[in-house]
Design a protein that fits this description.
The complex is a heterodimer of chains A (196) and B (449). Chain A has 196 residues and is mainly alpha-helical. In chain A, 73% of the residues lie in helices and 0% in strands. The longest helix of chain A is centred in the middle third of the chain and has 36 residues. The model of chain A has no long low-confidence stretch (mean pLDDT 87). Chain B contains 21 helices and no strands. The model of chain B has no long low-confidence stretch (mean pLDDT 89). Helices cover 74% and strands 0% of the residues of chain B. The longest helix of chain B is centred in the middle third of the chain and has 34 residues. The chains are: A mainly alpha (196), B mainly alpha (449).
Chain lengths: 196, 449
């Protein structure tokens, strides 16, 4: 039951992260198009520059929670990785309340005020005469904060489960870095050979 | 406690907390907000009017519309696409047969493959594991020395973060406000110098002691020359052309780094299609991994900019400056000391943390010692090669250990990396003694300023 709730949160962060991840494809094609029309047709677009940072900004800020759910935010874990899971979970649980929640809450509150101001005068980009609206991009700051907050709840519950059971519970899986896939496959193969 | 002292407490506490292993981006953000709240505290002001909240959103947004960092996800995407284009085995094979005449041909071919592939992808882990599965067993089977073979793969794979177009230099450009284009021009020669030193080292070692790399049996490696050329045309040239056109567009000022990266990413997709490796599944993998790695790097920036703006508001930067200046260092001792600190930080930490969090501490000191931030950046980039190769957090060695046959000990891999570490230090020394290695290309392209 609890496990399903945790995976539901994972799935929510993942779905949003995946949706925004596709920005990279639009960014690649859009920017390539701009290069093409500028050099081949000598007719640069007026929107490509604004588009590029809007897509990039939306891409990384909205993938924050997804990255957290897959434990891919960088850690200085030279000591941490050697500790038994119970100790890891205890440290992490405490630090979630000291660091994660205050910081993320501040981001939600501050980002909301910031985006609200921008929304009130329908802020547009100053980089081009087209006046690409950018208040939506600022809106994403508090939204990203809320996503992190929700994913944080799942991570905190996982810490508590780990303290009780002594094992890290399952997380949702989608794609892995190639090196991890290869190392995992290699280990399994070695395991198979050892048993036969 | 005075404000500057508080800033030093903030830095000290942070270094302690980093070692507890919590995701660093959030630690930085929270500490920035907490100390900032105290620093900007005005009695009678309502809680949410504190200036720190505005600063946090302002910093976050300035990362989101940073036109330098836009290139990061694009280069990552290009890398993840190339990683999935089935090109590596062809590349290694084609180089191996075309280099068979020189001593230690397999090791040299592995080095060049690593360097080229790592340059194109910029992702160290993938190169080391892929080559570890492909070239490493082949070298061991041919009777190559275990230490030499593992050193070649670890050191060669790590070159990807140095040789342009590398993401590390973009990140350094974003922290130091040195132009990425100039950094790329400056890193070209030192990057190839280091790759060249690796190759020379291997050839010399093998010539002195041929037992390290026995010659391949004749029949196994003999192909008529036109077949060799065909292999090269199929595997080596497309990738080389892709990299060179991306770099050329940047260096000749035809496109900004992000534009060149976008075209490079498109080229990588076309390459994958041409090698019949383009599937929906692989595209999805590349897209999702790009999002995750970009989020990792850019959220670190969000935290770090918040942290460092509070740190310098409290006067921490000035305090460190006064302290270092009071040590009466000469420029050379300052350079040595700063590089030593960065080398030591590379033991427990990775390059992203070092460049985004710790290098900015040194940057304001550079003008006092007459050190050019561009030159400093190249030294740092060379230096950080070591962070993948030195225990206890030698990522390259761990990746190789992860896929190597069980009889290859981790310690053997470390020992194999040591001579290559020496080559890194030699390259840094050469760059220091002959600064023209750094300046020649940028001056040639962009004039003497």
């Amino acid at each position: 039951m609890l496990q399903r709730f945790l995976l539901l949160i994972d799935r929510f962060s993942m779905t949003v992260g995946h949706a925004f991840a596709w920005c990279i494809l639009i960014l690649t094609l859009g920017t390539s198009y701009e290069v093409f029309v500028r050099y081949v047709l000598r007719d640069p677009t007026s929107w490509a520059f604004d588009l590029s940072y809007i897509l990039y900004g939306a891409l990384f800020i909205m993938s924050g929670a997804y990255t957290l759910s897959r434990d891919a935010h960088v850690r200085g874990d030279v000591i941490f990785r050697l500790l038994p899971p119970r100790v890891q979970a205890t440290i992490e649980l405490v630090l979630y309340f000291i660091f994660f929640y205050p910081g993320v809450t501040a981001l939600i509150i501050a980002g909301y005020g910031y985006a609200h101001d921008s929304f009130l005068y329908k802020e547009v980009s100053v980089n081009s005469p087209v006046g690409m609206p950018i208040w939506q991009l600022k809106m994403l700051i508090p939204l990203a904060g809320i996503m992190l907050f929700i994913q944080g709840i799942a991570q905190v519950i996982r810490c508590i489960l780990t303290i009780r059971t002594g094992r890290w519970p399952r997380q949702l899986h989608d794609v892995e870095e190639l090196e991890n896939v290869l190392i995992h496959e290699h280990e399994q193969q070695a395991g198979k050979e050892a048993t036969t | 406690m005075t404000n500057p002292q508080l800033a030093l407490v903030m830095l000290g506490a942070f270094i302690f907390i980093i070692l507890l292993g919590f995701p660093i981006a959030f630690t930085l953000m929270a500490m920035g907000v907490a100390f900032g709240f105290y620093a900007y505290y005005i009695p009678d002001q309502s809680f949410f009017d504190n200036r720190v909240f505005y600063l946090l959103s302002q910093n976050t947004f300035s990362i989101m519309n940073n036109d330098v960092l836009t290139a990061v996800p694009l280069f990552l995407f290009m890398g993840y696409m190339i990683e999935r284009s089935n090109i590596l085995d062809r590349l290694f094979y084609s180089l191996q047969v075309s280099l068979r005449a020189i001593p230690g041909s397999m090791a040299v071919a592995a080095l060049i493959t690593c360097a080229l592939f790592a340059t194109a992808t910029g992702i160290v882990g993938a190169v080391v594991t892929l080559m570890g599965l492909l070239a490493f067993p082949a070298m061991l089977k041919a009777g190559y020395d275990e230490k030499l073979s593992s050193g070649v793969i670890c050191a060669g794979g790590t070159l990807g973060i140095l040789i342009p177009p590398s993401i590390m230099l973009i990140v350094y450009g974003a922290t130091s406000s040195v132009s990425v284009v100039k950094l790329y021009a400056a890193a070209m020669i030192p990057g190839f110098l280091l790759a060249g030193l690796y190759i020379v080292y291997v050839i010399v070692r093998v010539t002195i002691n041929p037992k390290l790399a026995p010659k391949l049996p004749k029949d196994e490696s003999n192909l008529p020359w036109h077949k060799v050329v065909l292999l090269l045309v199929q595997a080596f040239f497309p990738l080389a052309v892709l990299i060179l056109s991306v770099l050329g567009a940047i260096l000749f000022g035809l496109a900004t780094p992000s534009e060149a990266a976008a075209v490079g990413a498109l080229g990588a997709m076309i390459l994958a299609i041409a090698y019949r490796a383009f599937t929906w599944q692989r595209l999805k993998e590349a897209v999702f991994l790009t999002a995750r790695t970009s989020a990792m790097v850019c959220w670190l920036f969000v935290g770090s900019w918040t942290f460092s703006s509070i740190f310098s508001y409290l006067g921490g930067e000035g305090e460190i400056k006064n302290f270092v200046l009071s040590m009466q260092l000469t420029p050379i001792t300052f350079l040595l000391l700063s590089q030593l600190i960065i080398f030591l930080l590379g033991w427990p930490l990775e390059w992203s943390e070092i460049i985004i969090i710790f290098v900015p501490i040194f940057l304001p000191l550079l003008p006092h010692y007459g050190v050019d931030p561009m030159f400093f950046g190249i030294l740092v980039a060379l230096n950080l090669q070591t962070s993948f190769l030195t225990p206890p957090m030698a990522m390259s060695a761990y990746y190789l250990k992860g896929i190597a046959p069980p009889h290859v000990q981790l310690w053997t891999i470390f020992k194999g990396c040591f001579p290559f570490l020496a080559m890194v230090f030699l390259s840094m020394l050469l760059v220091y003694v002959f600064p023209q290695l750094v300046y020649w290309l940028p001056n040639l392209f962009y004039g003497n300023n």
